[in-house]
Design a protein that fits this description.
The complex is a heterodimer of chains A (521) and B (465). By secondary structure, chain A is mainly α. In chain A, 74% of the residues lie in helices and 3% in strands. In chain A, helix 4 (113-132) packs antiparallel against helix 6, helix 11 (247-272) runs parallel beside helix 13 (305-325) and helix 14 (329-360) packs across helix 20 (475-493). Helix content of chain B is 74%, strand content 3%. The longest helix of chain B has 32 residues, at 152-183.
């Protein structure tokens, strides 16, 4: 397992960051060199991440490829990295999507090119850092640090309403994050006395926190993760951010950033606060179903192409959180897989939208029509991604949604049924969108445009391959998570499982809130 | 003949150096036309102080069996902050005051006098010596605030500062005299001993409140902050930079000594007052900064807000809290002076809208300002985050989690006005030509402060412990 002779995780984090610094040193007029450097760095990062895929030991739930160094001993902080079945796929996804972001922005970013590609690489580095961190302080550093380049990406190179979108994104995420910071500090102070205290996740997992502390901390962390996912009702930053961001920004946001929220639930909330998670799971599942249905219905009213896909993200992430908080094997595995899938599908959709926007410079759905006759190859790609988004069997979307619904149904029949209607709504708006854009008369706005060129083809090709590969033979990817998810569920179940009915769960929720208020006082 | 005991001067050596240098500068300015030499002498004095400091621990100026002056680790740390702030302030002043036609030799002399006053303040074991140091610092800064003699705003700033400052000094004196009347001594440690044996009376609480008010004025804590925005805006920017760090740090130092040690017995009482002041300060500072259009005023309100966060370190009431406060002030020196240096760098850099499009014309300057703004907000991986983290940890450990929640919310709110600068620099188009006035000294300061902010952010072990 550890045959990789060098600190691979640190390399994956700091190579893009180093690449960003390198780009800063290039003369700003030499745009080709900047772009090529960015492409090279992102390619190397991806190639270096492949050994993770190959050498990963699927038989253990322990952390792999770990690195631990003393960093701030006065505060019990270590530089600790490691991955397990839950996080490994995200690193690969981040590396892949970064390459595609570089290629899709090749011709569309013309202003401050240097800062753009540097920011992109910084985002990649910090995101991989989030997925690898095993120390809560380090995790927080990467979680927050990622905000800076993302804010710049949206605000500098975004659409007409970018200033509003950028600051909204930043402030929303920041408020959630600082509440999580308070939670992290409380966690740390409860890990022992004096020198035993540490921010290390693995150390914290050995401690049984008292229930009322678990509850407060669960909600503190929930503040940060729920905003990131985004869960209803703190999702309102997402449509603006996704719509106004440049294509690469949207892909990174939808592809990786929002996964970090759900990842946070898996990595921190569930292992550290098992009893609180069990108690709060019904509430979160309800919020998820609301997100699924609300997100879906809102899509029908959208006139902006990117905004529609953004709201579909809300709906899809509702599926993910539903699966995760079903707290059973199918649900969690489905949730994790669907996170990967959604990253691929929605990432691909945003890539496609970026390509058509580069040509027509309009995002209004009404301006589109008959695109299929002008750009047949593009239409074919978009069709596959649309069907994947709907969850057609044969595509990756189906596997994820199926597992999630299985898990959700096991946990709560009502919610399972309600969630299933979300699939129908999804089919509704996506097919409607496809018809409006691709079929029918060619609208006047769509003057003669060329079909996608080689660069764009190569950008979309990996996505198609993954969509079909995961859809037809998902076990290769599911096998990564088997043991880790099992381990997680065992950990959750080692506490007394609440086999009470839904009403009693809500009553206990109200009682618990009272206890929370007591403690805060 | 009476044997006049000569006090042990070794602990006071740094202060002696500083005062002698200040006096010398007063006279040397008549000789030297090139004021740059005076700046050099000032920096050398600061360097000399830093050199002598490790050898100058101890107590001295004994009166009635107790020392009036103490030089310990606590005061040494603050003197380090003062020297750093002095050196950086001198460096950014050199070309700036030439530009502003305020290049008087007295400028550097006054800076050194102010620093000497601060040094006496933090080393004072006796309240009278504390008052002496405080007045020396205050009077010097009053003049420095108004040193642009022909500028109305500068005059107004000096006037306001002087009037309000004198008022607060009077309150301080009243409080000290009340305390003397109650305890029979002006030695902080002796007062603490005395109070342990008496019960809390109204006059005692009154004296504590008066002293709290006076110190709150000095650190610009609400509701005694009103002078700060006007004074920061009107004073020459290099003095604003100096004022935002030095006197503030000195103020916190004396709060630490007087309240933590002197008023130890009534800790619950002064903690309650400070909590109220801290919350009000964070609220006023952050909310009013949101609507500012002048960057110096905005940074003034930001200073006020930061004073609120630092107060939380004192409220924690533990050694950990005091340590966190000191670390925060050290970090604060770099990021604040750094931000003001960029303001000085721009020819016309006083209004927030002057920064529009800076990223396009001067990308490196914009990048450094970005680092400072994020550091002031408290976003990792900058030093500002480390400072806040230390304070929050100390406060939660002491049981004030709810206060920290309030602080982080205000911290998040502050992002809006710091980000507004970044927004202007990177996301708006340039309206007019932006000229900058780089000089070796100014560039050096911007570089050093920028690097320190990043280095401390990534390797905090440099400052903790």
């Amino acid at each position: 397992m550890q045959e990789i002779g060098y600190p691979i995780l640190s390399t994956l984090i700091f190579l893009p960051i180093g690449g960003a610094i390198l780009i800063f040193l290039i003369k700003r007029t030499n745009e080709t060199l900047i772009k090529r450097t960015a492409l090279l760095i992102s390619l190397i990062t991806f190639i270096l991440s492949i050994p993770l895929f190959i050498s990963f030991d699927k038989t253990t739930a322990n952390m792999q490829f770990t690195e631990t160094y003393n960093w701030i001993p006065e505060w019990g902080i270590k530089y600790a990295l490691g991955i397990d079945g839950i996080s490994v796929l995200f690193i690969l996804l981040s590396a892949l999507l970064t390459i595609l972001c570089v290629t899709v922005s090749w011709n569309s970013i013309k202003d401050k090119v240097k800062e753009f590609y540097a920011s992109l690489l910084l985002i990649e580095g910090t995101m991989i850092g989030v997925f690898c961190s095993l120390d809560l302080f380090l995790f927080y550093i990467f979680w927050e640090a990622m905000l800076i380049p993302m804010y710049l990406l949206i605000g500098v190179w975004g659409g007409p309403n970018r200033l509003y979108a950028a600051i909204k994104f930043f402030l929303y995420t920041l408020v959630g994050s600082v509440l999580m910071l308070v939670g992290i500090i409380v966690l740390y102070l409860n890990t022992g006395q004096g020198a035993e205290r540490s921010f290390g996740l693995l150390h914290m997992m050995t401690i049984n926190y008292p229930y009322h502390i678990q509850l407060i901390l669960f909600w503190a962390f929930f503040a940060a993760f729920a905003v990131k996912v985004p869960m209803w009702p703190v999702h309102t930053w997402l449509p603006d951010a996704h719509t106004e961001a440049p294509t690469a920004g949207s892909v990174m946001l939808a592809g990786i950033l929002i996964k970090m929220g759900a990842y946070g639930f898996l990595r921190f909330s569930m292992p550290l606060f098992p009893e609180a998670t069990q108690a709060m799971a019904p509430a979160i599942m309800i919020l998820s179903v609301i997100a699924i249905i609300y997100g879906g219905i809102i899509c029908f009213g959208q006139t902006d192409l990117k905004r529609l896909i953004a709201y579909s993200s809300v709906s899809h992430m509702g599926f993910v959180t539903l699966g995760l908080f079903a707290l059973n094997t199918q649900g969690i595995q489905g949730g994790i897989l669907q996170m990967i899938n959604h990253g691929i599908i929605t990432g691909a959709l945003f890539l496609c939208v970026g390509m058509i926007y580069d040509r027509t410079h309009t995002r209004q759905i009404a301006d589109y029509g008959g695109t299929a006759s002008m750009m047949p190859i593009y239409a074919a790609f978009f069709m596959v991604f649309t069907l994947a988004s709907i969850g057609l069997p044969g595509t990756n979307g189906f596997i994820g949604e199926f597992l999630i619904l299985l898990g959700a149904f096991t946990a709560s029949k009502t919610l399972g049924v309600l969630a299933a209607t979300g699939i129908i709504i999804g089919a509704g708006y996506m097919l409607w969108l496809y018809q409006k854009i691709f079929f029918g008369e060619i609208t006047p706005k769509l003057k003669e445009h060329k079909d996608i060129d080689l660069r764009e083809f190569l950008t979309l090709a990996p996505m198609i391959i993954l969509v079909i590969w995961i859809g037809v033979y998902p076990n290769i990817f599911l096998s990564f998570m088997d043991v880790s998810v099992q381990n997680l569920i065992e950990r959750m179940n080692s506490v007394p499982v609440n086999s009470v009915s839904g009403n009693e769960k809500i009553l206990s929720l109200i009682n618990d809130t009272g206890a929370v208020v007591e403690v805060v006082k | 003949m009476m044997n006049i005991p000569i006090p042990d001067l070794r602990p006071v050596t740094p202060e002696i150096i500083m005062t002698l240098a200040a006096t010398a500068l007063l006279m040397l300015e008549l000789i030297f036309k090139n004021k740059g030499i005076l700046a050099l002498i000032g920096i050398s004095a600061a360097a000399a102080v830093l050199y002598v400091m490790p050898m100058s621990y101890g107590e001295t100026f004994f009166a009635e069996g107790s020392a009036m002056f103490i030089s310990d680790n606590y005061s040494a740390y603050f003197k380090l902050i003062f020297m750093i702030s002095l050196i950086l302030s001198i460096l950014i002043s050199i070309r700036y005051i030439q530009r502003e036609k305020a290049e008087y030799g007295e400028y550097y002399s006054l800076l050194l006098f102010a620093t000497a006053g601060m040094m006496f303040m933090v080393s004072a074991r006796d309240l009278i010596l504390l008052y002496l140091g405080l007045e020396l610092m205050a009077l010097s800064t009053y003049i420095l605030a108004g040193i642009k003699r022909h500028d109305i705003k500068s005059n107004e700033a000096a006037m306001k500062y002087f009037l309000l400052g004198s008022f607060s000094s009077a309150l301080l004196l009243y409080g000290i005299s009340l305390l003397y009347g109650l305890t029979g001594t002006t030695d902080i440690y002796k007062i603490s001993e005395f109070l342990k044996q008496t019960e809390t009376t109204i006059p005692l609480l009154l004296s504590m409140v008066l002293i709290a008010v006076a110190f709150s004025f000095k650190i610009a804590a609400a509701p005694f902050h009103m002078w700060a925005p006007d004074v920061y805006e009107g004073a020459p920017t290099s003095i604003t930079a100096f004022m935002s760090v030095g006197p503030k740090a000195a103020g916190f130092a004396v709060i630490g000594r007087v309240f933590y040690i002197g008023f130890e017995t009534i800790q619950t009482d002064w903690t309650a007052i400070l909590i109220g002041i801290a919350i009000l300060t964070m609220a006023v500072g952050n909310i009013l900064a949101l609507v500012q259009t002048n960057i110096k005023r905005m940074l003034a309100y930001s200073s006020i807000a930061h004073a609120g966060y630092i107060l939380i370190g004192i409220i924690a009431g533990t050694n950990e809290g005091l340590n966190a406060m000191m670390t925060y002030l050290f970090i604060y020196a770099f990021m604040n002076i750094g931000a003001f240096s960029v303001v000085i760098l721009l020819e016309k850099g006083d209004e927030i809208k002057d920064y529009e499009g800076l990223a396009k014309s001067h990308p490196l300057v914009a990048a450094v300002m970005l680092v400072f703004m994020f550091s002031l907000t408290g976003i990792p991986p900058t030093a500002g985050f480390i400072g806040k983290f230390g304070i929050f940890m100390a406060a939660i450990n002491a049981g004030y989690t709810w206060l920290v929640v309030i602080a982080v919310i205000f911290s998040a709110i502050s992002a809006y006005y710091y980000l507004r600068i970044i927004m202007n620099m990177y996301m708006k188009e340039q309206k007019e030509e932006i000229t900058i006035h780089p000089s070796i000294s100014l560039n050096a300061v911007i570089l050093i402060t920028g690097l320190m902010v990043l280095i401390i952010g990534i390797l905090p072990s440099v400052v903790i412990g």
